[in-house]
Specification:
Strand order of the largest sheet: 1-2
Shape: elongated
Helix content: 40-55%
Largest sheet: 2 strands, antiparallel
Structural class: mainly alpha
Number of helices: 6
Radius of gyration: 21 Å
Strand content: 5-15%
Number of strands: 2
Distance between the termini: 36 Å
Order of helices and strands: HHHHEEHH
Number of domains: 2
Length: 178
């Protein structure tokens, strides 16, 4: 599980105001969970970590495995076909055939002050943190870290921080209107 704190002053102020107004925070927290989930899914479309750094490209082993599973990827002489070249050009890191890793995210509100966003895919942590064959002998090779979720140290990326702030401001405005 990853945890991070919202440190944007206006977001914290809005959150504290909502709590001071004795507001049920489950609605805003669910909305924050959706914002984080949508942001995380966009990482797969962009092929970048939460801060915009491109993920490491697929390894030769991954690309070869993908091509050998597809008919027409090679000519009769064993050379890469036009279809195979097209497949290679379109293969993004962390996007497999099932696309499960890029779509299986869930948010859960915990209490009146927390929301947890997680992946139901068992290998999500390996993709996020990376791993080496020496640590995990069942791997074909080393897996580079391709961060999916924000890192607690630098905090939320600006785009995500703004989305969370917007949700809290809207909750505060609704609470004031009554």
């Amino acid at each position: 599980m990853f945890t991070f704190e919202i440190t944007n002053t206006s977001a914290v102020e809005a959150f504290n105001r909502l709590i001071a107004l004795n507001q049920d925070m489950s609605g805003p927290l669910m909305a924050i969970g959706e914002v984080v989930t949508d942001f995380t899914k966009q990482r797969f479309v962009d092929g970048t970590d939460p801060y915009g750094t491109p993920w490491a490209p697929n390894s030769d082993t991954t690309l070869r495995g993908m091509l050998h599973d597809r008919s027409g990827a090679f000519t009769k002489k064993g050379k890469l076909s036009a279809k195979g070249g097209k497949l290679l050009a379109g293969k993004k890191p962390l996007i497999g055939e099932s696309r499960s890793l890029s779509t299986q995210f869930h948010s859960t509100v915990i209490g009146n002050d927390s929301v947890v966003v997680s992946s139901s895919m068992r290998y999500a942590a390996m993709q996020h943190f990376g791993g080496s064959k020496s640590q995990f002998p069942h791997l074909w090779g080393d897996i580079p870290a391709r961060p999916i979720f924000p890192d607690p140290a630098p905090g939320l990326p600006d785009e995500l921080d703004q989305g969370v702030t917007d949700v809290l401001r809207a909750g505060l405005e609704n609470a004031i209107r009554g």
